[in-house]
Automatic annotation (TrEMBL):
Physiological role: Has an important function as a repair enzyme for proteins that have been inactivated by oxidation. Catalyzes the reversible oxidation-reduction of methionine sulfoxide in proteins to methionine.
Superkingdom to which the source organism belongs: Bacteria
Active site positions, chain numbering: 25
Stated name of the protein: Peptide methionine sulfoxide reductase MsrA
Keyword field: Oxidoreductase
EC numbers, comma separated: 1.8.4.11
Keyword Oxidoreductase belongs to the record: yes
Ranges for domain Peptide methionine sulphoxide reductase MsrA: 18-169
Reaction catalyzed: L-methionyl-[protein] + [thioredoxin]-disulfide + H2O = L-methionyl-(S)-S-oxide-[protein] + [thioredoxin]-dithiol; [thioredoxin]-disulfide + L-methionine + H2O = L-methionine (S)-S-oxide + [thioredoxin]-dithiol
Record gene name: msrA
EC class (word): oxidoreductase
């Protein structure tokens, strides 16, 4: 006969895993993930390029190779990587390789940066499922790339939606409108 064993909080093992997503302006990529249980932290930054410790101005000029991204530390026992991928797809236009919404250029391209081979596998499966779903008329062009060094963005970019709600709302309106059209009630608020 089996018995349920109730564990004390002190007996629970908390794991920490890292997910890195690029989907246009990092200001718009924090809030959708920020409210989920199991998310320890979200940092806005730059990754995928060749310049060490780039500044916002350097990345915007387009010669560092970096893209704006968010690094999410999460507990996979509470919030799975697969669930993070679902949230990610509902925040981006995966058919636009040259930016997202009003943000144009290579530094705004959509990328899933995997940190483990298992993440790579899950991202590829997720991308294929989205492509086969018929949700989009165009092919899914979001790339899946190995994580490279991640450089934290300047402090004023961190938690921007909390620091400057009016400017955040204005900068995310095109994204929000488009996502509501595509995902309807299923989309998380941009």
């Amino acid at each position: 006969m089996r018995r349920k064993i109730r564990k004390k909080e002190s007996d629970v093992i908390h794991l920490k895993e890292t997910a890195i997503f690029a989907g246009g302006c990092f200001w718009c990529m924090v809030k959708p993930f920020d409210t989920y249980p199991g998310v320890y932290s979200i940092v806005s930054g730059y990754t995928g390029g060749h310049t060490e410790y780039p500044t916002y101005q350097q990345v915007c000029q387009g010669d560092t190779g970096h893209t704006e991204a968010v690094k999410i530390e999460f507990d996979p026992n509470i919030l799975s990587y697969e669930e993070l991928l679902t949230i990610y797809w509902q925040q981006t236009d995966p058919t636009d390789a040259f930016g997202q919404f009003q943000d144009r250029g290579d530094s705004y391209r959509p990328v899933i940066f995997y940190t483990t081979e298992e993440q790579k596998k899950q991202a590829e499966i997720s991308k294929k499922q989205l492509d086969l779903s018929g949700k989009y008329d165009k092919p899914i062009v979001t790339t899946i790339e190995a994580a490279k060094p991640f450089f934290m963005a300047e402090d004023y970019h961190q938690d921007f939606y909390k620091k400057d709600p009016a400017r955040y709302k204005a900068s995310s309106q095109l994204r929000k409108n488009w996502l509501e059209e595509v995902w309807g009630e299923d989309s998380d608020e941009a």
